[in-house]
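Anyone up for a design puzzle?
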C-alpha cells in the first residue's frame, strides 16, 4: 500500500503533512457513494463522447473499466483498503491503474464539486425511497393493529390525566396521520433532490458542449440545476431530508413513549412481544421495552444532525467550501437511524398484545364521562358554563363516596340539577360517550370505521 498521489501537484513544491492528509480524507465514510460515483462517471463519459471530447474507443475503454471497478468493489470489501483521499479520487486512481492515460481524460469538464453533489443526490434518492417504503410498513402495522381491535376502547389523556374515552383504532390512526404527513414531506423534498448538478463543474459551469439533458436522463434526474454556483453549494436537500427525518423521529418517539407507558404494570394496556423486549440480569420479573426506548433515545441524534447541517452551511461564502464534506456523516447516520427505527417500530407493532379488557375497564372509570354529563345538561337547556360547575360538584360528591358518576342514585343527582332524568344513565354509558363524537374526525364508531376504510384505501392505492 502506497500513499495516494494528490489530485493536485503542479502548483505545489512541498509535501502534505501526514496528519493533515488524514484529517482531510473522507474515504472512510464517503465510500458509501461508490456506486453513485461510478454511475455518474459513466454518464459523464457518455456526455464527453457526445461532446466529441472522447473518441468512441476511449469512451468504451473508460466505461468498460468503470464497470470492472464497480464489480470489484461490490464483490470484495478489501478493494477499498487502498488508501485514497475520497471516493472520487479512489475511482479515478483505479481507472488509471486499469487503462492508463485514457483514464485521465474522464475528469475533463467536471470537478469533484459537481461530482460530489451529483453522487450525494443519487445516493440519497435511493435512500429516501427506502425510507418511504419503511414508513409505509409502520403505517401498515398501525392499520392492521387497528383493524384487528375494532371494538377496543382506550382512555384518552390530556396532561396524562384521564380525559375522555376514545376507540383504540382512533389512537392507532392518530399515528397513521402523522406518518402520512411525513410521507408527503419526503415526497415533496424528493422533487428538489432529484435535480442534477453535474455540468456545474467547479463553480462556473463546464466549458465543453456536454448535453446535460441527456446525462440527466441517463441518471434518472427530473431536472437540471439552473445555476452553477448554486448547484455546487446547495445542500438544502440534506437539511430537508434530515428535517423530514427529525419529524419522523418525533412521531416515532411519541409513539414509543405511549407504548412504554401503556406497557407498565400500572397501565397494563399493552404487552410487548418477547421478540422486542429484554430482561434484567438481576431482577427475574423484568420485561423491559428496550426497543421503544432506543427509538425514543435515537431521536436526539437525528435532531443533532439537522442542526449540524444547518450550522455547517450558515456562514459559507459561495461556492464550494470543504466544510461541506461534513454533510456526509450527518446524512448517512440520519438515513441509518431512521431506517432501523422504522423497522423496529413495525416489528413492535406487529407483535404487540393489547389487553382489551383492561383498556375498556380503564376507559369506563375515572370520571371519563363527566363532560358527557355536562353535555347532557346542556341538551336539557342548561348553559354549558353552569353545567360544567354543576358536574364539578357532582364529581366531588362521587369522589367522597368513592363511586363513579353513574353509581349515584337518580334522586341524589337531582339534588344538583332538577333537569336530570332516568335517561341520564344511558347518556353516561361508555358507548354513548363514544357515539356522540360523530362529527368528522371524531372517535364515534361510525367515524372511525370510515377513517379505517379511508386509510386502507390510501394504503392500497400506494402499491
Ligand atoms: N470529499 C469532498 C466532499 O465531500 C469532495 C469534494 C472535494 N472538492 C474539493 N474542491 N476539494 O466535499
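Challenge accepted. My sequence:
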Amino acid at each position: 500500500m502506497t500513499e495516494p498521489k494528490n489530485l493536485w501537484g503542479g502548483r505545489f513544491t512541498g509535501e502534505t503533512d501526514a496528519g493533515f492528509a488524514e484529517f482531510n480524507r473522507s474515504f472512510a465514510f464517503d465510500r458509501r457513494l461508490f456506486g453513485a460515483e461510478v454511475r455518474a462517471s459513466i454518464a459523464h463519459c457518455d456526455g464527453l463522447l457526445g461532446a466529441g471530447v472522447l473518441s468512441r474507443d476511449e469512451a468504451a475503454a473508460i466505461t468498460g473499466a468503470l464497470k470492472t471497478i464497480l464489480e470489484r468493489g461490490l464483490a470484495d470489501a478489501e478493494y477499498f483498503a487502498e488508501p485514497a483521499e475520497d471516493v472520487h479520487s479512489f475511482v479515478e486512481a483505479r481507472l488509471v491503474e486499469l487503462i492508463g492515460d485514457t483514464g485521465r481524460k474522464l475528469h475533463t469538464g467536471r470537478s469533484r464539486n459537481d461530482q460530489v453533489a451529483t453522487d450525494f443526490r443519487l445516493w440519497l434518492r435511493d435512500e429516501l425511497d427506502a425510507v418511504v417504503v419503511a414508513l409505509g410498513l409502520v403505517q401498515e402495522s398501525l392499520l392492521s393493529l387497528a383493524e384487528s381491535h375494532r371494538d377496543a376502547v382506550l382512555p384518552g389523556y390530556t396532561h396524562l390525566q384521564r380525559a375522555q374515552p376514545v376507540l383504540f383504532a382512533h389512537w392507532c390512526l392518530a399515528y397513521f396521520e402523522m406518518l402520512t404527513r411525513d410521507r408527503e414531506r419526503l415526497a415533496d423534498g424528493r422533487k428538489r433532490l432529484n435535480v442534477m448538478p453535474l455540468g456545474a463543474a467547479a463553480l462556473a459551469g463546464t466549458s465543453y458542449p456536454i448535453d446535460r439533458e441527456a446525462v440527466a436522463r441517463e441518471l434518472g434526474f427530473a431536472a437540471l440545476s439552473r445555476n452553477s454556483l448554486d448547484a455546487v453549494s446547495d445542500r438544502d436537500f440534506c437539511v430537508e431530508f434530515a428535517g423530514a427525518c427529525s419529524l419522523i423521529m418525533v412521531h416515532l418517539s411519541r409513539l414509543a413513549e405511549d407504548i412504554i407507558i401503556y406497557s407498565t404494570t400500572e397501565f397494563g394496556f399493552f404487552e410487548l412481544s418477547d421478540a422486542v423486549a429484554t430482561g434484567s440480569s438481576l431482577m427475574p420479573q423484568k420485561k423491559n421495552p428496550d426497543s421503544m426506548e432506543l427509538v425514543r433515545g435515537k431521536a436526539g441524534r437525528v435532531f443533532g444532525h439537522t442542526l449540524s447541517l444547518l450550522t455547517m452551511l450558515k456562514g459559507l461564502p459561495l461556492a464550494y467550501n470543504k466544510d461541506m464534506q461534513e454533510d456526509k456523516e450527518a446524512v448517512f447516520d440520519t438515513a441509518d437511524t431512521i431506517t432501523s427505527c422504522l423497522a423496529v417500530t413495525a416489528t413492535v407493532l406487529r407483535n404487540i398484545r393489547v389487553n382489551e379488557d383492561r383498556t375498556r375497564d380503564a376507559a369506563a372509570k375515572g370520571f371519563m364521562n363527566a363532560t358527557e354529563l355536562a353535555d347532557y345538561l346542556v341538551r336539557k337547556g342548561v348553559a354549558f358554563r353552569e353545567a360544567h360547575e354543576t358536574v364539578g360538584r357532582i364529581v366531588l360528591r362521587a369522589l367522597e363516596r368513592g363511586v363513579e358518576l353513574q353509581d349515584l342514585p337518580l334522586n341524589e343527582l337531582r339534588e344538583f340539577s332538577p333537569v336530570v332524568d332516568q335517561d341520564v344513565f344511558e347518556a353516561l354509558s361508555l358507548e354513548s360517550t363514544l357515539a356522540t363524537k360523530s362529527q368528522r374526525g371524531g372517535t364515534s364508531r361510525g367515524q372511525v370505521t370510515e377513517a379505517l376504510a379511508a386509510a386502507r384505501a390510501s394504503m392500497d392505492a400506494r402499491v
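A detail worth pointing out: The CA atoms of residues 21 and 85 lie 8 Å apart.
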